[in-house]
Design goal:
The protein is an alpha/beta fold. It has helices at 12-30, 37-46, 54-69, 94-104, 127-136, 150-165, 180-204, 216-227, 242-248, 262-269, 281-293, 298-320, 322-332; strands at residues 115-121, 140-143, 169-175, 233-239, 253-254, 272-273. It has a 4-stranded parallel β-sheet with strand order 2-1-3-4, sandwiched between helices. A two-stranded antiparallel ribbon has the order 5-6.
């Protein structure tokens, strides 16, 4: 909604930017997406309305802030995904708890799948996009906030070990910037997860291996024997890749030459880099959907989804007849 808190009469250029921002945000809101300021900025750059510079970003941010305060732009269009209030839930009566439980009731629709999927995204600013599409497909997701910490890598490895012991392989769909660090993050995830999981697997299956020195390839082969001769752990980088840069032509940034990985990056890709945020949210969402679709067994997934719908309906029926349930329980007492 638009709420006016202060007077402001923007100049001609600012009025044009506000109209453009309103049109872009309105378009994405119609599809169920809100935008961060950074995402809106990249929409301006991609359309050739402004140059891709820090000065342009700061100028647009100032215009958007003032436009919102002056009641010229809907407050709901722009979000900050990194700062959120947290608290506990409350209900007005017990029946409302059951209704809430019905709404949130979920079965694990990947329980009978041969391979599980998780989505890992480099940037917290894109959490809203990932959360929405991951939720549509009952897929767990994780905002890495750059390089994944050792604690989170270890925790993920323990989780993956449980899946593997249960006969399920695992695929991580990773999305990161196309820059020296962003590309290297995929390698880092792959190598550290594999190191943790193979060592833990070896510790639990030591009797199957000869000698003290066991190669990772031997451990992975043992895993494949247990889960159906498929790749046990896959880390699949689905964005941002160079073919996508060529396809969608996002605005470039200079590569950070101070990054220790810059020399390798420059040899392979040149002196330009690209941010994941520069891809439109609907493009990112479709990339995730398409990759999930290549992995999921639809029949097994739909069978559990149907059961979930039936059981959710029972909970809603119970919530709607809460007074009858109370009367029945009081009589039974």
């Amino acid at each position: 909604m638009k709420i006016k808190y202060e007077d402001w009469q923007p100049g001609t250029d600012a009025r044009l930017d506000i109209r453009r921002a309103d049109a872009v945000c309105r378009q994405y809101a119609a599809d169920g997406y809100d935008l961060t300021l950074r995402q809106l900025y990249y929409q301006f750059v991609a359309r050739g309305w402004i140059s891709n510079t820090d000065k342009s970003y700061k100028r647009l941010g100032n215009i958007i802030n003032r436009a919102r305060m002056a009641g010229l732009l809907d407050w709901d269009y722009i979000v900050d995904r990194t700062r959120n209030l947290r608290g506990t839930s409350h209900w007005t009566q017990p029946g409302a708890v059951i209704d809430s439980a019905a709404w949130s009731y979920r079965l694990d629709k990947w329980a009978d799948q041969p391979r599980r999927v998780e989505v890992w995204v480099e940037k917290e600013a894109l959490a809203g996009v990932v959360e929405r599409v991951a939720g549509e497909h009952d897929v767990d997701w994780f905002s890495c906030r750059g390089y994944v910490s050792q604690s989170e890598q270890w925790g993920a490895a323990r989780r993956f070990l449980r899946y593997l012991k249960g006969g399920q392989a695992i695929t991580v769909l990773h999305l990161g910037d196309h820059d020296p660090s962003g590309i290297d993050m995929t390698r880092d995830i792959r190598e550290r997860i594999e190191a943790f999981v193979t060592q833990d697997w070896l510790d639990e299956h030591r009797a199957w291996f000869d000698g003290e020195s066991v190669k990772a390839s031997e451990i992975l082969a043992h895993m494949r024997d247990r889960i159906g001769d498929v790749q046990p752990i896959e880390v699949r980088r689905i964005a941002l890749n160079f073919d996508q840069v060529q396809q969608y032509d996002p605005p470039p940034n200079p590569a950070k030459l101070t990054d220790s990985r810059a020399s390798t990056y420059v040899r392979e890709h040149g002196y330009e880099s690209w941010e994941l945020d520069a891809l439109p949210p609907d493009v990112l969402a479709q990339l995730i959907r398409d990759n999930i679709g290549t992995i999921r067994d639809e029949d097994a997934y739909d069978a559990i989804a149907d059961r979930e719908a039936r059981e959710r309906a029972l909970l809603r029926a119970a919530a709607g007849r809460w007074d009858d349930l109370v009367a029945f329980l009081d009589g039974a007492a």
